[in-house]
Design goal:
Shape: globular
Distance between the termini: 39 Å
Structural class: alpha/beta
Radius of gyration: 18 Å
Helix content: 40-55%
Oligomer: single chain
């Protein structure tokens, strides 16, 4: 079995991680986090989202954060935009990529964005069209791809449906997301195989939450299929809003440690990455959420 020789990591900590934090995080800390991540070798960073501040007050400083970043050549800065209003605000900040998100669960779609799966895709169609006309790449996220807090297990056919609908409106890349972290390797592989019916290997990524401690196993199971792109969050930032007290996104440090241990190239300096996680957690008054960081920080003394 040959695993990919190189893997692309998209750090979603500044957006997906921080938006789950209850306490406000100053724009200067968000900007410093992006700078620390790119200094550690990250080449894909999800910076912020252009959503209503009424729903996600943590991201109200989106334009300020985008304006404050010193951009590095070769780094792709992405933002999440749920609709045309969000896209119109986002495009002024010159993102390299926009992210739209749909759910593989009807109940989750209704509760999370107040519309059906079909309606959510209709909403994204003009966003995708406008972005691609402007030369901006469009990435789609398929949330609740293996399980939903309201519906339970999600059939791979639901993932295939959303992947097909996203492909039809011009979404160029899809992330298969285990939003509540209930997935296990075989379930995750089935969800990925469903998406692979509509997208090539290089345009699919895995996005796993560690609620049940399965995220690294799911990363490995994805590597077995040839998946070579993953969303992770520095220091494990971001809880799981559907499971009280549970961990959320898998920590970038933990995934990088696994990949390096497998001899897979990431271009990331693990020590600098740990420092980036420690700095943002210090701003939050919290310890790191990465097991690898905890172990290596003790070794540092």
């Amino acid at each position: 079995m040959s695993l990919p020789s190189k893997v692309k990591i998209v750090d979603v900590g500044p957006r997906d991680g921080l938006q789950n934090e209850k306490q406000p995080v100053a724009a200067e800390h968000k900007i410093a986090l992006v700078h620390a991540l790119q200094a550690a070798g990250l080449r894909e960073i999800e910076v912020t989202s252009f959503v209503s501040p009424k729903w996600v007050p943590q991201m109200a400083d989106n334009a300020e954060v985008m304006a404050g970043i010193t951009r590095q050549p070769g780094v792709r800065y992405s933002v999440l935009t749920p609709n045309m209003k969000g896209y119109e605000a986002a495009v002024l900040t010159r993102p390299d990529e926009i992210v739209v998100f749909g759910a593989a669960s009807e109940a989750f779609s209704q509760k999370n964005i107040n519309c059906s799966i079909a309606e959510s895709i209709e909403r994204f169609a003009p966003v995708t069209e406008a972005a691609r006309a402007a030369g901006i790449k469009v990435r789609g996220a398929i949330s609740c791809a293996v399980g939903c807090p309201y519906e339970g297990d999600i059939a791979p056919e639901r993932v295939e449906l959303v992947a097909r609908l996203m492909k039809e409106i011009g979404v160029q890349h899809v992330g298969v997301a285990d939003t509540i972290g209930v997935g296990t390797p075989k379930k995750v592989q089935r969800a990925l195989e469903a998406a692979l019916k509509h997208y090539p290997l290089e345009e699919i990524s895995g996005h796993y939450h560690d609620t049940y401690g399965q995220a690294l196993s799911n990363v490995y199971a994805s590597l077995e299929l040839g998946i070579a792109s993953f969303d992770t969050s520095v220091s494990g930032l971001g809880g799981c809003p559907y499971a009280k007290g549970a961990t959320g996104n898998v920590a970038t440090e933990d995934v990088v440690y696994l990949l390096h241990g497998l001899g897979i190239e990431t271009g990331i300096d693990l020590d600098k990455l740990i420092d980036a996680g420690v700095a943002i957690r210090a701003a939050l008054g919290q310890p790191t959420g990465s097991r690898v960081a905890k172990a290596l920080l003790i070794k540092r003394g």
